[in-house]
Amino acid sequence: MKYCSAQIKYLAAVRELSAERDDVKSVDISRHLGVSRASVSKTLRCLANSGLVYEDFCNSVVLTPEGENAIREIFRDYDEVYAFFHRFLKLPPEDAKSQALTFITTFPEETAERLKKLVKRSYHKK
Questions:
Q1: CB 28 within 8 A of CB 48
Q2: Per residue of the chain (126 residues), what is the pLDDT tens digit?
């Protein structure tokens, strides 16, 4: 299933915030992404309607099993793309993180796959 870039950004935010704390609230996502609470509410409603977060997101935002699968699918190429931006292009970690996320949400999946293979081959040469 294909996801729009807004859905991916919000799922990524939930993923990152969940790694830091047990209870992710809408206000946490708002601060993390630098967007309004209304925007968060609207996008979370869309994610809930798509079955990616549980309906009761007003108290705490929790990914459904489908949401967890979506995160795995979206981020399967992230580590290699991040490594490319950070290790090969020498970008600072935060810039590499942001650009890797932009890359995996914007470029075609086959391009990410080709970059992933290139990075893996480069690691094996070292």
A1: no
A2: 577 778 888 998 998 899 898 899 999 999 999 999 999 999 999 999 999 999 888 889 999 999 999 888 888 778 888 888 999 899 999 999 888 888 887 788 788 788 878 877 876 665
